[in-house]
């Protein structure tokens, strides 16, 4: 997968896996990740699906309606990529924290829904429930942070609330931050994610 790896200055820190929103690329979340942890290594990845010229991590049939077969396939593709990147760049595969926005948050959620605790934690900016008809594997004490907007029409509040419940039932320790805004990322939301990250990693 097309990607960028930026080696951090502190090897004990997690490697931050950066997953962009629709139309983004592997560079999109680099500045945000540097705010969250200036010393961590960063692995920014570009989704392999292209919708009207816009990169995504998996196909959708309509807005908010996901192609589940493709979601499964692309989730596996991402897992294989992370494994290969860990060998190539010599980072600790067991010490990876995912940071995703929108479509990137959805594939990050899908990593957990299909594989269990395959990352050490996750920061999900404006996620949806990736799929509803499967049982989420056990995620004992997995730290997950969700940033959601009360007026987000792309990712309605119910999606964030349902995701919180599904992850919590699976054993994850979920914290949700609510902004009064829509689908956009705000500085307050970033600061909240940063504070949560500092407490956990
Ligand atoms: C998705 O398709 O993953 C969600 O609708 C969010 C997005 O448009 O990126």
List the helices and strands and how they pair.
Layout: E1 3-6, E2 15-19, H1 30-36, E3 42-45, E4 49-51, E5 54-56, E6 60-62, E7 65-66, H2 68-89, E8 96-101, H3 103-115, E9 121-125, E10 143-149, H4 157-169, E11 173-179, H5 187-200
Parallel strand pairs: 2-3, 2-8, 8-9, 9-10, 10-11
Antiparallel strand pairs: 1-3, 4-5, 6-7
Helix pairs in contact: 2-3
This protein binds D-malate (MLT).
Organism: Viridibacillus soli
InterPro entries: AB_hydrolase_fold, Dienelactn_hydro
Pfam families: DLH
Task: Walk me through what this model shows.
The protein has one domain (3-200): Rossmann fold (3-Layer(aba) Sandwich). It is 34% helix and 24% strand. It is built from five helices and eleven strands; from the N terminus they run E-E-H-E-E-E-E-E-H-E-H-E-E-H-E-H. It has helices at 30-36, 68-89, 103-115, 157-169, 187-200, and strands at 3-6, 15-19, 42-45, 49-51, 54-56, 60-62, 65-66, 96-101, 121-125, 143-149, 173-179. Helix 2 (68-89) packs across helix 3. The model has no long low-confidence stretch (mean pLDDT 97). The chain binds D-malate. One of its GO terms (molecular function) is hydrolase activity. Pfam families: DLH. Residues 78-187 form the Dienelactone hydrolase domain. This is Alpha/beta hydrolase.
Main attributes of the structure:
single chain; two-stranded antiparallel ribbon; 201 residues; binds D-malate; Rossmann fold; 34% helix; globular; alpha/beta; 5 helices; 11 strands
Give the SSE order as H and E letters.
Answer: EEHEEEEEHEHEEHEH
| Contiguous helical run count | 5
Q: Helix/strand/pairing class, anyone?
A: alpha/beta
Count of all domains: 1
Overall radius of gyration: 15 Å
How many strand elements? Answer: 11
What's the CATH topology label?
Rossmann fold
In the CATH hierarchy, what is the superfamily? Answer: Alpha/Beta hydrolase fold, catalytic domain
Residue share in helix: 25-40%
CATH classification class: Alpha Beta
Strand order of the biggest β-sheet: 1-3-2-8-9-10-11
> What is the overall shape?
globular
Spans of at least 5 consecutive residues whose pLDDT stays below 50 are: none
Strand content: 15-25%
Mean pLDDT figure? 97
End-to-end distance: 27 Å
Sheet with the most strands, sense and barrel status: 7 strands, mixed
Write out the distinct hetero groups bound to the structure. D-malate
The appropriate CATH architecture is 3-Layer(aba) Sandwich
Pfam families: DLH
Protein name: Alpha/beta hydrolase
Keywords: Hydrolase
GO molecular function, one term: hydrolase activity
């Amino acid at each position: 997968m097309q990607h960028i790896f930026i080696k951090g200055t502190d090897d004990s820190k997690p490697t931050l896996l950066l997953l962009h929103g629709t139309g983004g690329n592997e560079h999109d979340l680099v500045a945000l990740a540097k705010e969250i942890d200036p010393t961590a290594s960063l692995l920014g990845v570009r989704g392999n699906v292209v919708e009207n010229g816009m990169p995504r991590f998996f196909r959708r049939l309509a807005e908010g309606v996901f192609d589940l077969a493709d979601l499964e396939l692309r989730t596996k593709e991402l897992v294989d990529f992370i494994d290969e990147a860990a060998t190539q760049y010599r980072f600790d595969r067991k010490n990876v924290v995912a940071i995703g926005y929108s479509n990137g948050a959805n594939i990050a959620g899908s990593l957990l829904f299909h594989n269990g605790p395959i990352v050490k934690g996750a920061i999900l900016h404006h996620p949806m429930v990736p799929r509803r008809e499967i049982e989420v594997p056990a995620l004992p004490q997995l730290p997950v942070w969700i940033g959601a907007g009360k007026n987000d029409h792309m990712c309605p509040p119910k999606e964030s609330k349902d995701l919180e419940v599904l992850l919590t039932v699976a054993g994850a320790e979920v914290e949700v931050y609510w902004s009064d805004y829509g689908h956009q990322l705000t500085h307050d939301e970033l600061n909240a994610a940063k504070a949560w990250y500092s407490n956990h990693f």
